Amino acid sequence: MLLPPIGYGTFPSKEKLIQNIPVAHQVGYELIDTSDDYGNAEYIGRVKKCDENISKLTISTKISDVSHLWNFRNDFVKQKKLLGVPQNQPMDLLLLHFPYPHLYLDAWKELEKLYEEGLCKAIGVCNFEIHHLEKLLKYAKIKPMVNQFELHPLFRQKELCEYCERHNIAIMSYSPVARMDKRLINDEIIMRIAEKYQKSVVQVILRWDIQHRYIPIPAASKKEHIQSNIDVFDFSLTNEEMQQLDSLDCGMRIRFSPSTMWSTTKKIKNLIRHLQYKFKIY
Description:
By secondary structure, the protein is of the alpha/beta class.
């Protein structure tokens, strides 16, 4: 499955998507990113039902709650219906949202079943680090086609990116502008480059993503920002400028760490759910 080079991130928007998705489609977005955890699928579905052209957009969605794996398929069907995907058509891209301790291998098995049955065109993961991927690749019949994770010039995750590239796993970057962190947005190097090309700092950063062959999914709630975020295909950064942005990497994570976000209580609960799933103790 060939993915567009940039997507429109819908978190945390909800009802406003009824106006914003038509704008995104009009200015050229072909990929919309969401999750069952965002609570906005119904608004995306409503827009798609009203416009046949919008219904052709590629939808990337995530399964976030795997606490009841025995009900995984029903959760998938519910999400598909909310997103306005006809019953006889497959979902585009289905991702496992987190590497849940004790659960993600079994959850991946459920994604593989959906893919093998033709119920989705592609499957992948989110927030998986190298050690998660190594374990998954030893276990999986079908390797993930996408890994979506935090990625921006302040947090390049170079080793993870190289690992994904070696295994032909497409890289999708969320928080591509570090949630407008001032240390990135006010960086003098990027500001000089932006001035040179008569572009915004955000556009320069998104161009950096694209030239690295990452798929950024910037979120925006204002029409002008939705439009400017995709206006990044009429200029190219030089090798030197790419290296300058690369050099900003300081390991500064804006979001959570997938390896440390789980409390002891959550780990125990996940283990119990894992055993329930394994031994069919419902």
